Give the backbone structure.
Amino acid sequence: MDVPRKGAAKGRMIRRTVFAVVAIAAVSVVVWGARQMKPAAPTVDTAPWVDTVKRGEMVRQVRGLGTLVPEEIMWLPALTDGRIAKIRLRPGANVSADTVIMELDNPQLELDALNAEWQMKSADATLQDLAARLQNLSLDQQAAAARVASEMQTARLNAEVESKLGEQGLSSDVKVKTTKAIADELQNRSRIEHEKIGSLGQSIEAQLNVQHVQIQRLRADWELKKKQVAQLKIRAGVNGVLQQLGASPAVPVEEGQRVAAGAILAKIAQPSKLKAELKIAETQAKDVMVGQIAEIDTRNGVIPGRVSRIDPAAQNGTVTVDVRLEGQLPSGARPDLSVDGTVELERLRDVVYVGRPVFGQPNSTITLFRLDATGKEAARTPVRLGRTSVNTIEVVDGLKVGDKVILSDMSSYDAHSRIRLN
């Protein structure tokens, strides 16, 4: 039979106790070690945008979107009231100075022009009639003066004959004096008649001048009315392209529409003379100056240019900057074409710079992920930035030449100080 050994149960209890204590201690060590370990760095699946810090020349630029606009624009207004009778051309048509774009209709103006023409012709006929009557009056006066002069000569001869007869005693003193008085009277009448010829000539000239002035006034009125009738045909006035009908594309003019004098009927542009109007953020436009070099990208070629004007006022957070184009326009360049423009502000010599991060603002401090030597991991590093350009930014502190940093948007990893690149 089995004989129980003394102390066996007690030994088992001791062993179990020891095993439990050892197990608890091991678990505690494992838990403590796990707590002391740093969390694993998350892995970035997509390849981020990485750039290398460099030293050298950095070109500061600002960029803005805009459109090509004509340097010279001709707005065609209605010079008189009227109704649009016919529109001959539509936007996009090439026009010359004499090209008729549309025709207006104004019957009252045409009637006024016809009446003015007949009034002028009537005044012209009146002038001719007046000139003829005054000419006859002048001839009558000349005839009267000639008749008196002839009578004066006859009377003077009679007076001389009577004077000689009186000296010989063959004529009485009364007759001699009478014939002499008649000759003297006719001489005075002849002088007066000749003076009347000169006075009548001045009167004739004055009357004719009055009628000439009247004709000139009526002719000027007729010319004005005739010009207004001619202006019912709206001509381009310059060589170019018809841009739009009406004051704006949203409110075009149509046939049958009545327009008042001064209403805008069409817009003519010269496509060979274009400039770029760029919209630049007002925070960046403070450094833009007239004369700076610019480049305009038309998506079909890049055109060099220079800043020619800066709008003094900002609208909707942007400033309008005009760029005069100095290169040949590429094919397809036309007014209202969307373009992308870049203005060169300055060239910074011997500076440390890097590609501009997504959230990189001038004169600010941000954190960027800097890659380690292996290029497999990146640690968050504070970086102080300086002046900015379109694609680059100056590094003031935090990075050295040759460092590689991630420029992509890494805001989803703000809770991590390190990341692993896949």
Notes: Residues 107-167 form the longest helix (61 residues). Residues 73-106+232-269 form a domain with the OB fold (Dihydrolipoamide Acetyltransferase, E2P) fold (CATH 2.40.50.100). The radius of gyration is 54 Å. Residues 293 and 306 are 5 Å apart (CA to CA).
